[in-house]
Amino acid sequence: MEKDIRVLIVDDEPEARELLQFILADMPDFKVVGLAGDVDQAMGYFTGNPPDLVFLDIHMPDKDGFQLIDYIRREGLNPGIIFVTAFDNYAIKAIRNSVFDYILKPIRKSELQDALERFKHSARQKKLPDLKEILELLREPSSSKVKLNTRSGYILIAPSDVVFCEADGNYTNIQLLNGNRELTTQNLGAIEEVLDGHGFFRASRSYLVNLRFLSRVDRKSASCILEYNGKSSCLKIPSQKIRLLEASFS
User: How far separated are the first and last CA of the chain, in Å rounded?
Assistant: First the structure.
């Protein structure tokens, strides 16, 4: 009888770790052997009996997922790696032709199952020397910005720095990670198109939220909580949108 595939989950968001662990509990042949909230903690799982497969968040505070891969390479190890990310762009899609795979946040059970099947049936003959080229490809989009019009010109903003967008008539207020707000002359629908594929959810006619910062949804008060840099924002969200959001995490 073959041994279970040992799985390590590395993500700075506790909810994301717990959700993956919960879904994997129903997956035959896979056993979660560790949960890590940062890269330093994850490194401890590569001594002794290292994992066979790592679910790895790309964007984490302090040290990112790339630094863990650098460490794995230096140790001469070759686990399977599946990135967990909220960003769906050309660079992320390109990694499926390499040694890596990916799934998108919010995590869907069907997508996770597909990734596990690809891992189980791949020959896994590609080794980590592919790493440098792939890391360069993946690092590039993280610094890319989108252009948003203002009354005096335009601003350039990284989608990962946008916490939420709030409609203001034909204008839109952009709440940024650093606490600042920017007023753009584009309506919320136009902003939604610009940010499409970057992990945003249209929570209502008034709000577009970055799921990366979503920490709580309250059905009773019909609201959601976004947390960022020690701050929090409570936004009203219609009941039907709450159900849609919940379904996307199922």
Answer: 32
